[in-house]
Amino acid sequence: MAKTLRLILGDQLNIQHSWFDEVDPEHIYVMMEMKQETSYVRHHVQKVIGFFLAMRNFAETLQNHGHQIIYWKLDHPENTQNLTANLHQLIEKHNIFKFEYLLPDEYRLDQQLLDLCISLPIPSKKFDSEHFLTTREFLAGFFKGKKTFLMETFYREMRKKYNILMEGKEPITGKWNYDHDNRNKFRDPLMLKEPKVFAKNVSQIRDLLQKMEVETIGTVDEKNFEWPVSREEGIQVLDHFCEMLLDNFGEYQDAMYTGDPFLFHSRLSFSLNTKMLSPLEVVRKVEQYWLAHQDRINISQVEGFIRQIIGWREYMRGVYWAKMPEYATLNFFGHERKLPKFYWTGKTNMSCLKHSIGQSLSRSYAHHIQRLMVTGNFALLAGIAPDEVDAWYLGIYIDAIQWVEITNTRGMSQFADGGIVGTKPYVSSANYIDKMSDYCKGCYYDKSLKSGEKACPFNSLYWHFYHRNENKLAKNPRIGMAYKTWEKMKDKSKILEQAEWYLANLEDL
Ligand code: FAD
Ligand code: SF4
Questions:
Q1: pTM (global) more than 0.90
Q2: Domain range for 12
């Protein structure tokens, strides 16, 4: 019988896709674990294990539903470890007359599949992944002719289009955005909740990675793998979020605390980015939960969460497809330094970086403000090359896939796009970090000093950054105040000297 081969990539685990509505004996689905995907960057060991486990579970679900599926593990004897070569092989072997795939979310894979289809002697067809709220092209059209793509404008459009937290044409509580209520420091450990984690034994996959010489970073507790790797587990994490964490999410969204890496964050990014959960089902469930529990959950907790998903997440994907492949080459400040080694070990005297990097290595997770205002902030102040910064973020986090990693890293965090995503660089001195965390308390450095042996490196590097980039930033209306303060400062040369010393000795900080 003539057969169609349908490819499912590791981040396309969307069981609600229309492809799977009916079982068709003419369709053969294929999923493959490949070194091509484990080696385009060095990934965290939990990330590789998480993806492979989730893929295996998905294949089993498809099989249980009656679909035909070919699943190649990493050590399958016919696995060439390359997507194109594997597909050529399968098409020949199974006498395939048509090839079909779901639109990938990464430019790299998009190009590879376009090239493959050109080289195939059979017809091919691509389908939407049916995951996002907008098409790849929507954002570019929405902001046509604009230099800056304002996220808030896009977010409001999504709220209206999908009728989320709306009453007619107006926001349900009369206000669109509660960002200003989301800036509290966390102080009370009694408020902490146990995270919803799983405890899977993953030693077999760990052994497979070692046998196949897959190079990874970070550590994993082989007997207690924590991440959700099926749709059912993703739903459990979502329910846990609604019941236990949502009532404090917004208020402590920007807080950092040494005693808990997760605080009130949802830990849903992996389930979302692998498409085990859909963004719309997540926000609808959160909205419904809030509507039923308004007596104890404030709108500001909920709006902040929904904004991240239908706002930032969706918006970043739009920017990615509007601006790739050029986006991956942008370097507005011309930064060229190498990332210090402590990003790979966590061994530094800077308490904020030690904690944020340490938990990234042990949990493959850091929340948004740790990524933006600690590791990202330091990399930007220290003038690290965006390629280096991208490779680190793309490897270390369980949720890192280029479309959402690069736009956040190169765009929001490093301002390497010169202001497409953000209106100004996210940089700060120790002031902000101390305001939002308990990191400075136990630090070797002194948060209040700008110069001297124990001066916090963030303080002098902050002013050095503004000073060295004056011609690029002074005219930015959102930054003017910083230059006015700098002008009035008395000990400028001492601060700059201190920063120069730190820049020359980054490895020793
Ligand atoms: P929560 O705080 O509970 O937020 C809920 C959801 O909102 C997240 O699961 C995520 O899907 C979405 N979200 C929140 N902020 C953003 C954002 N800025 N962009 C897109 N989606 C967002 N997110 C990734 O999914 N993959 C990445 O590779 C990634 N790299 C980042 C790199 C940098 C430098 C920065 C500053 C942020 C990055 N983010 C990335 C965004 C954000 O940090 C993570 O989505 C979040 O920390 C995931 O944890 P959570 O699920 O507990 O999030
Ligand atoms: Fe980080 Fe400086 Fe605070 Fe230390 S003093 S934790 S280096 S901000």
A1: yes
A2: 3-127
